Amino acid sequence: MENKIYKVNNKEFSVLKNARIKNKNIKIAILNGEELCSKSMFIQEMIRQFNLPMKNTNNFDGFLDWMRDLEWIHEQEIVVVIYNFDNCIEDSGKKEIIKMFGQMILPFWEKEVEEVVMGGKRRNFNVYLVD
Q1: pLDDT of 24-50, one tens digit each?
Q2: DSSP states of 48-111 as a string?
Q3: What is the CATH number of domain 5-130?
Q4: pTM assigned to the model
Q5: Predicted confidence (pLDDT) per residue in 45-92, tens digit
Q6: CB–CB of 54/40 below 8 Å?
Q7: Region class of 2: left (phi > 0), else alpha (psi between -120 and 50), else beta
Q8: Domain boundaries, the chain
């Protein structure tokens, strides 16, 4: 299992969604990049989508901690879809989002969870940036 960030167009994602994501035990969070004008707005939407037990959208470390917990999410696979990613946030914010997933969240669920969480189990966790 390799957790990854995929940059795809609408047509590619539609084919993938119909072939792979349909009718599975998957938690899907769908965000619209055009509505995410700041990192704080991104975190706020992720809090809502994942029912994270936090309110402070400026607490980036707390957000990362909860995204590497998710014990209340029972689905074995997690997919985050960000439509209109190129229209989302400013360039530095986009880089932070990619770095956050690519270096901290996805590797955790790919392997680290078994090393740092008692009884922790790996999960497929992929991100699709759709434009």
Answers
A1: 788 999 999 888 888 888 999 999 999
A2: HHHT-S---TT-HHHHHHHHTT-TT---SEEEEEEETGGGSS-HHHHHHHHHIIIIIIHHIIII
A3: 3.40.50.300
A4: 0.89
A5: 999 999 999 988 788 899 999 999 999 999 989 999 999 988 877 777
A6: no
A7: beta
A8: 5-130
